[in-house]
Write a structure and sequence with these properties.
Layout (H helix, E strand, L loop, with lengths): L12 E6 L11 E16 L7 H9 L4 E13 L5 H19 L6 E8 L6 H13 L7 H6 L9 E8 L2 E10 L10 E2 L5 E2 L7 E8 L3 H13 L16 E10 L8 H23 L7 E9 L2 H12 L2 H8 L5 H10 L10 E4 L2 E5 L2 E2 L4 H8 L3 E7 L5 E8 L3 H9 L3
Parallel strand pairs: 3-4, 9-10, 11-15
Antiparallel strand pairs: 1-2, 2-3, 2-10, 5-6, 6-9, 7-8, 11-16, 12-13, 12-15, 13-14
Helix pairs in contact: 1-2, 2-3, 5-6, 7-9
Length: about 425
């Protein structure tokens, strides 16, 4: 992605990423993404009961989960979680300094942090980093911005989709980080600030668009987009204390998008596509992963059943190990589906690995072992589960489980 421009491709956005010394490496560790004017925004955060100070600050800025802001400041290397009142003051200070430097109010600036839990931020370095990042704001290569939010990620992750609406084109762009401690259950915020809806390395996603759309309408299309993308990813079943996803709209393109219009439906589809691409990129880059695994469940009695069955398979260490070893062990798939809360009738259950049916009518079937093994040897593995009980579907994304995952997480803190 070096030399590419993604997050600032939509009109009305500026960004920069710098190294300020939070990380011991020379990799960038602080990013600022802002609008040239005010931005309509929709926010979803972790529903973990232990949350970081930046999450609390974001909920204070957007207590209903949507509203008007100017941007976001993000650091990596330290999550600012379980740091008490100092952590809350530090999160607010990050927002206040960034806002002052761009001519905004601190209540218009979101904050996100990722990294080790329980350590305070080195605020002298963070302040220098914010000043450097604001001074460098522009619309050029956003590689430094993406790298600045990464922790154990091995690659930069971004996506862009353009859609033609009445009056012109609209661009939706996004960046994401996350490779471990990934099983987002992002929720919107209600009037009381509690989570509602929704589903090591934390997931942080920032999306930008030049669409002219009101904050409430933006939140209305962001929630289902997140459910089918970020909330559908699980690397290790561990929901972070700091997961944050925000979409910001500058209003610079086309005509206003109205509620219930064809334009809103097209925009929603584009937003969902960007979220899905980012979600799959996250799963593909899971800690120690060698394969992306896509679990498609159909024939469920309800959406909740479909999701439960898909995630039961995606979260099964036995299944993930079998995929890593190239073993078409359908017993582990059936076991995982059966232990889920979803209604399962074995006689109606059908399982496929790639295009190879391996289980049907309550028992394993004779199948082409070589074809199944060839599919498992690829970089993307697809498992299809038909419950045969209804019309609901759900797709979950995960990765294989390797010995390298254990090494990464055994050595992470030290």
């Amino acid at each position: 992605m070096s030399g590419a421009r993604h997050i600032t491709l939509p009109e009305g956005f500026l960004a920069a990423g710098v190294h300020c010394g939070i990380k011991t490496s020379r990799q960038e560790d602080l990013a600022v993404i802002v609008g040239e004017g005010r931005l309509a925004a929709a926010l979803m955060t972790t529903r973990n009961q232990v949350v970081g100070a930046p999450v609390l600050w974001c909920r204070r800025v957007l207590p209903r989960g949507f509203g008007w802001i100017r941007g976001i400041v993000i650091n990596s290397g330290c999550s600012n979680v379980c740091t008490g009142r100092r952590g809350q003051r530090d999160a607010e200070a990050m927002a206040a300094l960034t806002a002052r430097l761009i001519g905004a109010a601190k209540e218009e600036m979101l904050v996100a942090s990722t990294g080790i839990i329980g350590q305070p931020l080195p605020m002298a370095r963070v302040r220098r980093g914010i000043r450097s990042a604001v001074a460098a704001l522009g619309r050029g290569d956003d590689g430094p911005v993406v790298r600045a939010i990464m922790t154990t990620d091995t690659r930069e992750k971004s996506a862009v989709v353009q859609v033609r609406l009445r009056g012109g084109d609209v661009t939706v762009a996004g960046i994401v980080k996350g490779a471990g401690m990934i099983a987002p259950h992002l929720g919107c915020l209600g009037p009381a600030g509690r989570g509602s809806g929704g589903g090591g390395a934390t997931m942080i996603a920032v999306l930008t668009t030049d669409a002219a759309i009101a904050p409430r309408a933006l939140a209305g299309v962001f929630k289902p987009a997140v459910r089918g993308s970020f909330n559908a990813v699980t690397i290790d079943s561990d929901e972070s204390t700091s997961d944050t996803a925000v979409v910001m709209a500058s209003g610079r393109a086309a005509q206003p998008i109205r509620a219930g219009s064809a334009g809103l439906r097209k925009f929603a589809a584009a937003l969902a596509e960007v979220c899905r691409e980012l979600a799959m990129a996250m799963a593909r880059d899971g800690e120690g992963a060698t394969k992306l695994i896509v679990i498609r469940v159909s024939g469920a009695r309800s959406g909740a059943d479909a999701e439960a069955a898909a995630k039961a398979v995606a979260n099964s260490p036995l299944f993930k190990c079998a995929v890593h070893g190239g073993d078409p062990n359908w017993g582990r798939i059936v076991m995982a589906v059966g232990k889920s809360p979803a209604k399962v009738v074995p006689a109606r259950l059908r399982v496929r690995i790639g295009n190879v049916t391996v289980f049907a009518r309550g028992r394993g079937v004779k199948f082409d072992l070589r074809a199944a093994e060839e599919h498992l040897a690829g970089e993307t593995v697809t498992v299809s589960v038909d419950l045969g009980l209804g019309k609901a579907t759900y797709t979950a994304y995960t990765c294989d489980l390797s010995a390298n995952y254990v090494r990464i997480n055994a050595d992470y803190h030290t």
